[in-house]
Amino acid sequence: MSNLNTTNRQAAPQIVDKSQPQRILLVGASGVLGQAVQRHLGSRHEILTAGRGSGQYRVDLRSDASVEALLRELGPLDAVVSTAGGLHFGPLTDMTAAQFDSGLQDKLLGQVRLALAAQHVLRDGGSITLTAGILSREPIPMGANASAVNAALEAFALAAAIELPRGLRINVVSPTVLTESLPQYGAFMAGMESTPAARVALAYQRSVEGGLTGRTFSVV
Amino acid sequence: MSNLNTTNRQAAPQIVDKSQPQRILLVGASGVLGQAVQRHLGSRHEILTAGRGSGQYRVDLRSDASVEALLRELGPLDAVVSTAGGLHFGPLTDMTAAQFDSGLQDKLLGQVRLALAAQHVLRDGGSITLTAGILSREPIPMGANASAVNAALEAFALAAAIELPRGLRINVVSPTVLTESLPQYGAFMAGMESTPAARVALAYQRSVEGGLTGRTFSVV
Description:
Two copies of one chain form a homodimer. Chain A contains six helices and seven strands; from the N terminus they run βαββαβαβαβααβ. Chain A has a seven-stranded parallel sheet, sandwiched between helices. In chain A, helix 1 links the parallel strand 1 (23-27) and strand 2 (46-51). By secondary structure, chain A is an alpha/beta fold. In chain A, helix 2 runs parallel beside helix 3 (97-118) and helix 3 (97-118) packs parallel to helix 4. Chains A and B meet through helix 3 and helix 4 of A and helix 3 and helix 4 of B. Chains A, B: Belongs to the short-chain dehydrogenases/reductases (SDR) family.
């Protein structure tokens, strides 16, 4: 082409070499899934763990002040990963709006709050990875709150991706029930296939080291 | 068959003749969509309208007490339809968790609260119809809250349907931008096809008079 050697008028897109070690905040590292993500990503990246009651740093995802203080304290980050968030499980027939709201405030708004704050502190080209779950598409009895919250998180990532600045990306990992959690949850997930947390952890790597954004990585 | 004349040991399933006039509560009747639903369903059913500031009855979907008082006052209903609920629209880059929560509390939890209360007062075989919107799947800039809320409503109906007792049904109508609303919203929905509110109203009839449950009726 004739203009191969002319000066580009636009800056070249920033290429982040994601095979280099990244500095990653992992919120919710104490859970079964968080531990697997820490183990898997920790072999190649620097992982800073935070949680309500465990990890290297304390954070309450229900509080703007707590999330902002944590991000200020940690300084520059390449990725923020959340495997945190509680839901309300219980029969629809006696569910209250307050119970439903508890899942909205915790797993949904808690992770959204983290993402909204992270967009301002992540390095250019950084990533945000949140956790939803299979109930968004495959409901179970007593799971109406979980279905709503998980679907909201998937749609939030879909929408947020088209607005994030500076090459930032956002994805959601949406796993089926973990094999490790079958003793606790198996009775509620009749006939649903489980998968080991270590396999789900691959999806977090795909989000953190890959190039996709706005996606739900479904691991079933 | 040999047992055609034997006594059924189970009660016959209740067949509701939905071509008969139903007694329907419509919340949000003052909006463009609500007016179209009232016009369409009103030709064959008894419509009781309620809203925060208009309609025959006052109701605040953010309040358990207000919703319960309304349902107590109205007595037996065959269907509850909502076209109510506000969202937060604004750039992701300066969105706060409180702004995001305003849409959760209003359009999402407000309609969920109505559904949770309605399940206790609807006649056997009755129906609940809520309103979501196309942004659940087709995001636009400034629409992250809308995408999350609408997707949550769709998944809530999917999940609630498997638990509702007494033959009750629940569906969500998820329309594209209304032609009547283009002057107000068209600039935000670049290149998206609109549809007249009267066409969307058909989906409410389908939910109220039909047999489906747990469904999202997408009108695009």
